[in-house]
Amino acid sequence: MSLHLHDVTLTYPDGDTRLTALDQVTLTVPKGSLTAVVGPSGSGKSSLLAVAATLITPDSGTVTIDGTTTGGMTRGELTTLRRNKIGIVFQQPNLLPSLTAAEQLQVMAQIDGRSPAKARGRAMQLLDSVGLAAQAVRRPHQLSGGQRQRINIARALMNDPTVLLVDEPTSALDHDRGATIIDLITRLTHQQATATVLVTHDRTHLTAADQITEVHDGRLTMPALTQGARA
């Protein structure tokens, strides 16, 4: 299993008390599968994603990424783990306006110490996988919203992560473009063999998810296999 959360509880200060964001959450996401996490605003979806990304340390419970349990790791060790093992697709692409599509990806690999030639090759491979090889030299203002989101996804895959965490990727897109993005994430999950968690409030495009789980008041329901799930 590439991602496993076991009995995770997360609370935040709320005046003289504490607000429970996640309440004894357990979730397993196998390699090469997509788990959709749905629920209303404020239910705990964003907190779940932040804990899985090791951006927030829970009060209790364990987070295991590709066989490594994160409890007790230093800040530097967690940074290295995120860089090598976790890809994050943020809700907004936040592309650097001065960089071309290829350069948006290349900078990720260069931070990790790869040679420019290897970074360029990997960037072009991923741009081709998301259908944007022909747009490699374009800058963000020359691309559509859907194209920018595809670059956002390709960038998250640049360092070959084992875990892919996706936050509301269709919130700024219309229905058809949203469907295209979900199809792309599903295909790349299988091709790249990532353990993917897709957080969304929109259930419309989730028929291909391997499992769907709901968050209500910080608690997960039992994951339910979808019709598209594989044995």
From TrEMBL:
Lineage summary:
Bacteria, Bacillati, Actinomycetota, Actinomycetes, Micromonosporales
Domain ABC transporter: start-end pairs: 3-231
**One GO MF term:** ATP binding
Keywords in alphabetical order: ATP-binding, Nucleotide-binding, Transport
Q: Could you tell me what this protein is called? A: ABC transporter ATP-binding protein
| Gene3D superfamilies reported for this sequence | P-loop containing nucleotide triphosphate hydrolases (3.40.50.300)
- Spell out the InterPro entries in the cross-references: AAA+_ATPase, ABC_transporter-like_ATP-bd, ABC_transporter-like_CS, ABC_transpr_LolD-like, MacB-like_ATP-bd, P-loop_NTPase
Q: Does the keyword ATP-binding apply?
A: yes
Matching entries from SUPFAM superfamilies are given as: P-loop containing nucleoside triphosphate hydrolases
Which CDD domains would you find in this protein's record?
ABC_MJ0796_LolCDE_FtsE
Query: Which stretches are annotated as coiled coil?
Result: none
